[in-house]
Amino acid sequence: MSWSWTELGTDSDFAEVKSVSVVPDPPELGRNLDIKVTGVIESSPEELEGASVTILVRIAGSTVHKTQKSLPDFLKDLGSSLPSESGPFSLTLSLGQLQGLAPTKYSVRVTGTTTDDHQVFDLDFTFDARPK
């Protein structure tokens, strides 16, 4: 399985993502997947209170899954938490075992926004689970 990521954010985002890595790389079906994200929080964590995350999964341009959660709940569900201060951050998100993926190409957009619709971050991931 191959994968890639792109930051779609702007200079006014509350967080700048510098790197994303996965273990194992490339991801493998039936194995636990951990995603490590590093970057810089440009604002105070208090400004992120009430922020939410929207995850949109698409196959061939069609939305197959959409979910929205508070940013703290999203991070907690993945075994992490919101950094306590502005500046550099490093998060490790544990997704568990990859199981039951159809052999196709997936587009996953993960967007964070504050309660007043200010963008926190905007990331686009591509996972290709087609056999080689």
Class by alpha and beta content: mainly beta
**What is the third-level CATH name, the topology?**
Ganglioside M2 Activator Protein, Chain: A
Overall 3D shape: globular
Low-pLDDT segments: none
CATH superfamily: Ganglioside GM2 activator
CATH architecture classification? Distorted Sandwich
Rg over CA atoms: 15 Å
Total count of domains: 1
Strand order of the largest sheet: 1-8-7-4-5
**Secondary-structure element order, as H and E?**
EEEEEHEEE
Task: Give the strand content.
Answer: over 45%
- The residue fraction in helices comes out at under 10%
- Summarize model confidence as the mean pLDDT: 88
Number of strands: 8
From the N-terminal CA to the C-terminal CA, the straight-line distance is 8 Å
Q: What does this entry look like structurally?
A:
It is a single chain. By secondary structure, the chain is mainly beta. It has one domain (2-128): Ganglioside GM2 activator (Ganglioside M2 Activator Protein, Chain: A, Distorted Sandwich). Helix content is 5%, strand content 55%. The protein has a five-stranded antiparallel beta sheet. A three-stranded antiparallel beta sheet has the order 2-3-6, with no helix packed on it. The termini are close together. The mean pLDDT is 88.
Chain-wise SSE layout:
Blueprint: E1 2-7, E2 15-23, E3 32-41, E4 52-59, E5 62-70, H1 71-77, E6 87-97, E7 105-113, E8 119-128
Antiparallel strand pairs: 1-8, 2-3, 3-6, 4-5, 4-7, 7-8
